[in-house]
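SEQUENCE-TO-STRUCTURE ENTRY
===========================
Question of interest: how does this chain fold, as expressed in backbone structure tokens?
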Amino acid sequence: NNEWSEQNARENFALNGVSGNIALYLGELDAVPAAQYDLIVANMQLPIITTLLPAFAAMLEGPDARLITSGILAVNRDDLARSAHAVGLVASEERQEDEWIATLFEPIGE
């Protein structure tokens, strides 16, 4: 819920030429229109992401549906993986910078 983050994201979308392909929402999850999405990006702390994982999993649809999480400390990777697996998501890729990880999840069986 940070206006600087929203502005920064929009600038990055423009720099990468994808502004017309991405919907960005600032606020709580209920600010996002009820729909199905093929990509969700969540940069939040572990307790918030794990609370929202069931909703994220329900919102993902399509053969290339993916969830990218970031803002997670590497020491919490197993907790994140267990929580994601419980809602039908499995980690398919991870990147680490210092103590932080970003993880790409996809629906189990996809």
About this structure: DSSP finds three helices and four strands in the chain. The radius of gyration is 14 Å. The longest strand covers residues 89-97.
